Amino acid sequence: MIGEYNTQRPGIILKEYGRNVQKLVEYIRTISDKEKRTELSYTLIELIKQLTPSIKEQGDDPQRMWDDLYIIADFNLDVNNPFPVPEREILFKKPMKVEYPQSNIRFKHYGKNIEKLVKEALKKEDPQERQDAIIYLGKLMKTFYANWNKEPLDDSVILRDIQQMSGGALNMTIDRVREDNLFEKLYKERKKVRPQGNGGHQHQRQGGHRPFNKNKGGNQNFRRRRDQ
User: Fold this and answer.
1) Pick from 99, 90, 68: nearest CA to 81
2) For the region Disordered, what residue ranges are annotated (predicted)?
3) Whole-prediction pTM value?
4) Integer Cα distance of 78 and 85 in angstroms
5) How many CB atoms lie within 10 A of CB 176?
6) Class of residue 66 by CB neighbours under 10 A (exposed 0-12, middle 13-18, buried 19+)
7) Helix, strand or coil, per DSSP, at residue 124
8) pLDDT value at residue 81
9) How many whole angstroms separate alpha carbon 62 and alpha carbon 83?
C-alpha cells in the first residue's frame, strides 16, 4: 500500500497540537449522540494536556483549550461546553492599526526632544535663566551629535542651530561660549588606563632601597659574633 503524502493531506489548523488531534476532532464530529461527543471532548482535552508540552509551560487555561478545540473543528462542534462558545469574528478579529506619529524633525542628529526643550526655554522670562538654558541646550546638542557623528562639531554651528530653532529668540555671543567652553559635552569619554608592565617594577627597584641580602649580611654578622 502506497503511503499518503503530506501534500495530499488537508492542512493542520493548529500545528502546536498536531495532525492526530485534528483527526480526533473530526471523528468526534461524526458521532451522532451529543452526550457522547461531549464525553469524548473532555477526554481529548485531558489527552492534549498530557501530550502538548506548551500547555504545561503556559499554565492550565481550560477555556483557551476549549476555544482551540472549536477552532480545529472550524466552529462546527455541538457539545456541552463548560465555557461560552467562542465567536469566529472575535477570535480572528484583526487588531486596530496604531498610527505611527509623523512629525518633521529639522535636526535629526539632535533628536525631537531638543526642539521641545527649546520651546520650554522660550517660556522663561528671566534673562539669566534663558542664558542657562542656552548653555544646557548646547551641552546636550554637542553630546547627542557626538553619538551621531564622531567628527567634532563647532560651537558656532550649535549656537546657530539654537537660534534657528528658537526663531532668533535665544542668543549668545560665540566669544563667550568659546572663552569659557560653555558647550562642553556632558559625558566625557573615559581614557583607557594601560596596565604598567615590567618597566614600573624596574623603576621601583632602581629608585628604592636595595633588598636585604640574607646570604651576605646574615652570614657576616653570624661569623663576627662567633669570632668574638
Assistant:
1) 68
2) 190-228
3) 0.41
4) 10
5) 12
6) buried
7) coil
8) 87
9) 9
H-only helix segments in the chain: 18-30, 34-51, 53-58, 62-72, 88-91, 112-122, 127-148, 155-165, 174-180, 198-207, 219-227
Which grid coordinates are listed for 54? 506548551
Which three cell numbers mark 58? 503556559
Smallest CA-to-CA distance from 182 within 193, 174, 192 is with 174
Quick check: 190 and 145 in contact, CB under 8 A?
no
Sign, CA dihedral 217-219-221-227, equals negative
Give every CB contact of residue 211 below 8 A, 6+ residues apart in sequence: none
Residue-level pLDDT at 117: 92
CA distance 67 to 71: 6
pLDDT top residue among 109 and 56: 109
Residue 157 carries which DSSP code? H
pLDDT value of position 131: 92
Query: Where on the phi/psi map is residue 105: left (φ > 0), alpha (ψ -120 to 50), or beta?
Result: beta
Closest CA to 120 of 109, 129, 128: 129
Residues ≥6 apart with Cβ < 8 Å to 137: 114, 117, 118, 121, 162, 170
